[in-house]
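An instance as discussed:

___
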Amino acid sequence: MIEGAAAFGFSREDPTVFVAGLETGSLYKGSLIANEERSVNAVLAQRGEVPWSSRAAALMTRVPATHYHRLKLRVEKETVLARGREVTTQSVFGADPDVQVLYQSPITFSYEPHSGPVYEAVFSPFHRNLFLTASTDSSIRLYNLIQNRPVHVTEPCASSIFSVDWSPSRPMVFAAGAADGNLYIYDMKRSKGKPDVTLKVTDDRSAVHSVVFNPRNPDLVATGDAQGFVKIWRLSHFLSHLAPREQQLLDRLATARKDDLTGDSAEGDADEADGEAYAFDDDDS
Protein backbone atom coordinates (compact mmCIF):
# COMPACT_ATOMS: atom_id res chain seq x y z
CA MET A 1 0.00 0.00 0.00
CA ILE A 2 1.26 3.47 -0.92
CA GLU A 3 1.02 6.11 1.82
CA GLY A 4 1.56 9.79 1.10
CA ALA A 5 3.99 11.82 3.21
CA ALA A 6 2.68 15.11 4.60
CA ALA A 7 5.53 16.16 6.92
CA PHE A 8 9.29 15.91 6.71
CA GLY A 9 11.94 17.18 9.12
CA PHE A 10 15.73 16.78 9.24
CA SER A 11 17.77 16.49 12.41
CA ARG A 12 19.74 19.63 13.27
CA GLU A 13 22.62 17.54 14.62
CA ASP A 14 22.86 14.85 11.95
CA PRO A 15 21.78 15.99 8.45
CA THR A 16 21.41 12.37 7.30
CA VAL A 17 18.65 11.64 9.84
CA PHE A 18 15.04 12.63 9.19
CA VAL A 19 11.50 12.05 10.44
CA ALA A 20 8.57 11.58 8.05
CA GLY A 21 4.90 11.93 8.96
CA LEU A 22 2.31 10.33 6.69
CA GLU A 23 -1.30 11.07 5.77
CA THR A 24 -2.29 7.89 7.60
CA GLY A 25 -0.83 9.23 10.86
CA SER A 26 2.20 6.94 10.73
CA LEU A 27 5.53 8.37 11.82
CA TYR A 28 8.95 7.05 10.82
CA LYS A 29 12.61 7.75 11.39
CA GLY A 30 14.85 7.38 8.36
CA SER A 31 18.44 7.87 7.28
CA LEU A 32 19.98 8.91 3.99
CA ILE A 33 22.73 6.37 4.60
CA ALA A 34 20.52 3.53 5.82
CA ASN A 35 21.44 0.15 4.32
CA GLU A 36 24.59 1.64 2.82
CA GLU A 37 26.95 -1.25 2.08
CA ARG A 38 29.81 0.66 0.47
CA SER A 39 30.91 4.27 -0.01
CA VAL A 40 30.97 6.22 -3.26
CA ASN A 41 34.77 6.20 -3.11
CA ALA A 42 34.78 2.41 -2.82
CA VAL A 43 32.74 2.12 -6.01
CA LEU A 44 34.98 4.60 -7.82
CA ALA A 45 38.14 2.79 -6.69
CA GLN A 46 37.10 -0.50 -8.25
CA ARG A 47 38.54 -1.04 -11.70
CA GLY A 48 36.15 -1.74 -14.51
CA GLU A 49 35.75 -1.49 -18.26
CA VAL A 50 34.92 2.24 -18.00
CA PRO A 51 35.23 4.82 -15.19
CA TRP A 52 32.21 5.80 -13.09
CA SER A 53 30.89 9.28 -12.36
CA SER A 54 30.32 10.14 -8.69
CA ARG A 55 26.55 10.38 -9.13
CA ALA A 56 26.38 7.00 -10.82
CA ALA A 57 28.52 5.46 -8.08
CA ALA A 58 26.17 6.90 -5.45
CA LEU A 59 23.34 4.83 -6.92
CA MET A 60 25.33 1.65 -6.21
CA THR A 61 26.10 2.25 -2.53
CA ARG A 62 22.96 0.43 -1.27
CA VAL A 63 22.85 -2.44 -3.75
CA PRO A 64 23.08 -5.74 -1.80
CA ALA A 65 26.31 -7.70 -2.21
CA THR A 66 24.36 -10.55 -3.85
CA HIS A 67 23.40 -8.25 -6.74
CA TYR A 68 26.22 -5.72 -6.79
CA HIS A 69 28.88 -7.28 -9.04
CA ARG A 70 26.41 -8.64 -11.56
CA LEU A 71 24.65 -5.26 -11.86
CA LYS A 72 27.96 -3.37 -12.05
CA LEU A 73 29.17 -5.54 -14.93
CA ARG A 74 25.87 -5.19 -16.77
CA VAL A 75 25.94 -1.39 -16.44
CA GLU A 76 29.53 -1.19 -17.69
CA LYS A 77 28.73 -3.48 -20.62
CA GLU A 78 25.75 -1.35 -21.63
CA THR A 79 27.95 1.77 -21.40
CA VAL A 80 30.62 0.24 -23.67
CA LEU A 81 28.01 -0.86 -26.22
CA ALA A 82 26.61 2.67 -26.23
CA ARG A 83 30.18 3.98 -26.75
CA GLY A 84 30.05 5.95 -23.53
CA ARG A 85 33.25 7.28 -21.99
CA GLU A 86 32.05 6.89 -18.41
CA VAL A 87 29.17 5.40 -16.49
CA THR A 88 26.52 8.03 -15.76
CA THR A 89 23.23 7.86 -13.88
CA GLN A 90 21.53 7.43 -17.25
CA SER A 91 23.75 4.40 -17.87
CA VAL A 92 22.69 2.81 -14.58
CA PHE A 93 18.98 3.31 -15.24
CA GLY A 94 19.48 2.18 -18.84
CA ALA A 95 20.56 -1.24 -17.55
CA ASP A 96 17.02 -1.61 -16.18
CA PRO A 97 17.94 -2.60 -12.59
CA ASP A 98 15.31 -3.79 -10.12
CA VAL A 99 14.11 -0.67 -8.30
CA GLN A 100 13.95 -2.51 -4.96
CA VAL A 101 17.58 -3.55 -5.42
CA LEU A 102 18.73 -0.05 -6.29
CA TYR A 103 16.70 1.79 -3.64
CA GLN A 104 16.63 0.09 -0.27
CA SER A 105 14.17 1.50 2.25
CA PRO A 106 15.61 4.39 4.30
CA ILE A 107 13.26 3.66 7.22
CA THR A 108 15.08 2.60 10.39
CA PHE A 109 12.49 3.06 13.17
CA SER A 110 8.74 3.58 13.63
CA TYR A 111 6.87 5.57 16.28
CA GLU A 112 3.47 5.32 17.91
CA PRO A 113 1.24 6.89 15.24
CA HIS A 114 -1.20 9.76 15.33
CA SER A 115 -4.84 8.99 14.54
CA GLY A 116 -4.88 11.57 11.73
CA PRO A 117 -2.53 12.98 9.08
CA VAL A 118 0.74 14.44 10.39
CA TYR A 119 1.37 17.89 8.91
CA GLU A 120 4.50 18.97 10.77
CA ALA A 121 7.63 17.39 12.23
CA VAL A 122 10.34 19.67 13.58
CA PHE A 123 13.46 18.94 15.64
CA SER A 124 14.38 20.90 18.75
CA PRO A 125 17.28 23.36 18.38
CA PHE A 126 18.28 22.56 21.98
CA HIS A 127 18.18 18.75 22.13
CA ARG A 128 19.43 16.41 19.42
CA ASN A 129 16.80 13.72 20.05
CA LEU A 130 13.61 15.71 20.60
CA PHE A 131 11.10 16.58 17.90
CA LEU A 132 7.52 17.88 17.81
CA THR A 133 4.71 16.70 15.55
CA ALA A 134 1.37 18.31 14.68
CA SER A 135 -1.66 16.38 13.45
CA THR A 136 -5.31 16.67 12.49
CA ASP A 137 -6.11 14.49 15.52
CA SER A 138 -5.85 17.77 17.53
CA SER A 139 -2.65 16.73 19.26
CA ILE A 140 0.89 18.04 19.46
CA ARG A 141 3.33 15.32 20.40
CA LEU A 142 6.86 15.46 21.73
CA TYR A 143 8.96 12.45 20.78
CA ASN A 144 12.42 11.27 21.69
CA LEU A 145 14.15 10.01 18.55
CA ILE A 146 15.14 6.74 20.24
CA GLN A 147 11.81 5.96 21.94
CA ASN A 148 8.71 4.53 20.27
CA ARG A 149 6.14 6.35 22.40
CA PRO A 150 5.87 10.14 22.78
CA VAL A 151 7.28 11.61 25.99
CA HIS A 152 4.50 14.21 26.04
CA VAL A 153 1.14 14.82 24.34
CA THR A 154 -0.98 17.95 24.53
CA GLU A 155 -4.20 19.11 22.84
CA PRO A 156 -4.66 22.90 22.85
CA CYS A 157 -8.09 22.68 21.18
CA ALA A 158 -10.49 20.30 19.45
CA SER A 159 -9.40 21.38 15.96
CA SER A 160 -6.71 20.08 13.63
CA ILE A 161 -3.14 21.28 14.27
CA PHE A 162 -1.41 22.23 11.02
CA SER A 163 1.90 23.70 12.11
CA VAL A 164 4.32 23.83 15.02
CA ASP A 165 7.72 25.45 15.58
CA TRP A 166 10.28 25.71 18.37
CA SER A 167 11.44 28.99 19.85
CA PRO A 168 15.07 29.65 18.87
CA SER A 169 15.83 31.14 22.30
CA ARG A 170 13.65 29.27 24.83
CA PRO A 171 14.20 25.47 25.00
CA MET A 172 10.77 24.88 26.56
CA VAL A 173 8.74 27.20 24.32
CA PHE A 174 6.98 26.34 21.06
CA ALA A 175 4.10 27.71 18.98
CA ALA A 176 1.33 25.93 17.08
CA GLY A 177 -1.22 27.00 14.47
CA ALA A 178 -4.66 25.39 14.40
CA ALA A 179 -7.72 25.03 12.19
CA ASP A 180 -9.75 27.14 14.65
CA GLY A 181 -7.81 30.27 13.64
CA ASN A 182 -5.72 30.53 16.80
CA LEU A 183 -2.01 30.65 17.53
CA TYR A 184 -1.08 28.74 20.68
CA ILE A 185 2.15 29.53 22.53
CA TYR A 186 3.34 26.91 24.99
CA ASP A 187 5.83 27.45 27.79
CA MET A 188 6.40 23.99 29.19
CA LYS A 189 8.40 25.44 32.07
CA ARG A 190 5.17 26.92 33.39
CA SER A 191 2.61 24.41 32.12
CA LYS A 192 2.98 21.30 30.01
CA GLY A 193 -0.75 20.80 29.52
CA LYS A 194 -2.08 24.26 28.68
CA PRO A 195 -0.91 26.97 26.26
CA ASP A 196 0.59 29.98 28.00
CA VAL A 197 -0.86 32.35 25.41
CA THR A 198 -3.71 32.01 22.90
CA LEU A 199 -3.80 34.59 20.11
CA LYS A 200 -6.74 35.02 17.74
CA VAL A 201 -5.18 35.12 14.27
CA THR A 202 -8.28 35.16 12.04
CA ASP A 203 -11.64 36.82 12.76
CA ASP A 204 -13.63 34.21 10.84
CA ARG A 205 -11.81 31.22 12.40
CA SER A 206 -9.96 30.47 9.15
CA ALA A 207 -7.19 27.98 9.69
CA VAL A 208 -3.62 28.91 10.58
CA HIS A 209 -1.51 26.79 8.25
CA SER A 210 2.02 27.95 9.06
CA VAL A 211 3.94 29.13 12.13
CA VAL A 212 7.62 30.13 12.07
CA PHE A 213 9.83 31.83 14.66
CA ASN A 214 12.34 34.43 13.53
CA PRO A 215 15.77 32.83 14.18
CA ARG A 216 17.48 36.23 14.66
CA ASN A 217 14.72 37.98 16.62
CA PRO A 218 13.20 35.31 18.87
CA ASP A 219 10.47 37.63 20.10
CA LEU A 220 8.92 37.59 16.60
CA VAL A 221 6.78 34.76 15.23
CA ALA A 222 5.03 34.72 11.84
CA THR A 223 1.75 33.04 10.92
CA GLY A 224 0.25 32.25 7.53
CA ASP A 225 -3.51 31.70 7.40
CA ALA A 226 -6.27 30.59 5.04
CA GLN A 227 -7.34 34.21 4.49
CA GLY A 228 -4.11 34.75 2.57
CA PHE A 229 -2.41 36.89 5.21
CA VAL A 230 0.99 36.69 6.85
CA LYS A 231 1.00 38.20 10.32
CA ILE A 232 3.94 39.02 12.56
CA TRP A 233 3.47 38.69 16.31
CA ARG A 234 5.73 40.18 18.94
CA LEU A 235 6.02 38.06 22.07
CA SER A 236 6.77 39.27 25.57
CA HIS A 237 10.25 39.36 27.07
CA PHE A 238 9.33 36.39 29.25
CA LEU A 239 8.55 34.17 26.25
CA SER A 240 11.65 35.11 24.29
CA HIS A 241 14.48 35.12 26.85
CA LEU A 242 16.12 32.09 28.42
CA ALA A 243 14.78 31.16 31.85
CA PRO A 244 16.85 29.68 34.70
CA ARG A 245 17.44 25.90 34.57
CA GLU A 246 15.42 25.67 31.35
CA GLN A 247 17.89 23.48 29.49
CA GLN A 248 18.06 21.06 32.41
CA LEU A 249 14.26 20.81 32.43
CA LEU A 250 14.22 19.99 28.72
CA ASP A 251 16.89 17.33 29.22
CA ARG A 252 14.82 15.80 32.00
CA LEU A 253 11.69 15.88 29.84
CA ALA A 254 13.54 14.03 27.06
CA THR A 255 13.98 10.97 29.28
CA ALA A 256 10.51 11.03 30.84
CA ARG A 257 7.73 8.59 30.07
CA LYS A 258 4.37 9.87 28.87
CA ASP A 259 2.62 8.31 31.88
CA ASP A 260 4.84 10.34 34.22
CA LEU A 261 3.71 13.66 32.77
CA THR A 262 0.43 14.19 34.57
CA GLY A 263 -0.81 17.61 35.54
CA ASP A 264 0.84 20.95 34.96
CA SER A 265 4.27 22.20 35.87
CA ALA A 266 4.54 25.38 37.87
CA GLU A 267 8.25 25.98 37.38
CA GLY A 268 9.44 29.56 37.17
CA ASP A 269 7.70 32.88 37.64
CA ALA A 270 4.11 33.62 36.76
CA ASP A 271 4.98 36.62 34.62
CA GLU A 272 2.39 38.07 32.30
CA ALA A 273 2.89 36.82 28.73
CA ASP A 274 1.16 38.45 25.80
CA GLY A 275 1.61 39.32 22.14
CA GLU A 276 1.05 42.10 19.66
CA ALA A 277 0.06 41.57 16.03
CA TYR A 278 1.33 43.40 12.96
CA ALA A 279 -0.47 42.15 9.84
CA PHE A 280 0.06 42.59 6.12
CA ASP A 281 -1.20 40.87 2.98
CA ASP A 282 1.17 38.17 1.81
CA ASP A 283 0.91 39.47 -1.77
CA ASP A 284 2.84 42.55 -0.66
CA SER A 285 5.46 40.74 1.43
About this structure: Residues 265-285 have pLDDT under 50 and may be disordered. Residues 40-102 form a domain with the Helicase, Ruva Protein; domain 3 fold (CATH 1.10.8). Residues 156 and 194 are 7 Å apart (CA to CA).
